[in-house]
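Following the same procedure, backbone shapes were mapped to integers, yielding the entry below.
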Amino acid sequence: MSAIGDYMIVLWGFLLITLMGIGGFFMFRKFLKKLPKEDGRSKMDWEEFYMEKTRHMWRKPEKELLEDLVSPVPELFRDLARHKIASKIGEIALKKKRKIITQDVLIEGYILATPKRDHKFLRKKLDQKNIDVTPYESFFEY
């Protein structure tokens, strides 16, 4: 009977250490994003900057397309993903001196803001929407 209790204590301890390690990892990542870079602004500061500068540039069809593209992201992380991707789209729109965010800028920003492992899902989603990915192939290479 005591052997089972000992194993349960060891398993419980292992579970606690594992969960604390996972939580610590995500907290550390957030901490790193908040550290100022050479220009004095953090990655999160730049994301907020681009969101605020381009908020008025979004039209309804582009907002709906962005929502549709981020729909495969688990709901727990969807807001963060949407914010990160929308800020990258805004950055590209400002660099290209666009007055509004178009579908081309949206798709380019989405490709550049997402990791390569997610590009397969993006291609599938764009194919479902009958959007040709050929003009964006160069962005998939980054």
Summary: The chain has a mean pLDDT of 89.
